[in-house]
């Protein structure tokens, strides 16, 4: 009889798609084990009529899953890395980070996707809102919640010209393939940095479960792990649990990491952005140093508005 391993996941189409990819990859490598998905509802999934910034963004989409992991109701958990708080609970660990999808945000619009033609745009992210308003101050930014399908539907319901979402979700749900009535335009990093870890999938397990850790290490993508560690270190050093718009993106060039970070006011009227590079063997140090640089440039005045 095959050994069974239970994988905890949220119930959205995207979460199930990501978890299914992980389950399939594990099944290919470990044919003697049966991997099963277990859907767990999180607070973020249940409260859909309130902006994320009003209910606290820290752990909204992971807490219940992590509790199930700690209580041995599941053996491992699959998360979008950007949803994971930077302070991992005791007795848990991120055992693997899979290869990152394109981390850019995209504008989904009815027309050409050009900013001059978009007047009313939807997003649930303060980070996206701040960077949108920094570029286009006259935009009417509307808060929308729900999974990707819901947000696309709300374009009609709320009379929006466009919405902004992560490209990784579009790609993993294969929405960019074939005939579609909307246009997808990738937003360049030059004017919108993604959330820390955006586009990457993290697999979490109990830190004393050596057998599962050993399995999951086979799925770890070293380059993605290094770059996202730098991004998460920046977020941690800036106090990333606070609802202040923070973006980060790291790349590896040779033996160095180049980390780009931004802190902004929600209204887009103040944006502080900087880059820093350093040895790739110490990504946390780069993140911490860039946080200090941003604070010295004035980010502390923005972060100081955090409640």
Structure description:
The protein is α/β, with parallel strands linked by helices and 307 residues long. Helices cover 34% and strands 25% of the residues. The chain contains ten helices and 13 strands. The strands form three sheets. Strands 2-1-3-10-4 form a five-stranded mixed sheet, with helices on both faces. A hairpin with a 6-residue loop joins β12 and β13. α9 packs parallel to α10. The chain starts with a strand and ends with a helix.
Strand fraction: 25-35%
Q: For the CA atoms, what is the radius of gyration?
A: 19 Å
What overall form do the CA principal axes indicate? globular
Helix content: 25-40%
Work out the oligomeric state of the chains in this entry.
single chain
Structural class: alpha/beta
Describe the largest sheet. Answer: 5 strands, mixed
Mean pLDDT: 90
Encode the helix/strand succession as letters: EHEHHHEEEEHEHEHEEHHEEEH
Number of DSSP-assigned strands = 13
The tally of helices reads 10
Spatial arrangement of strands, main beta sheet: 2-1-3-10-4
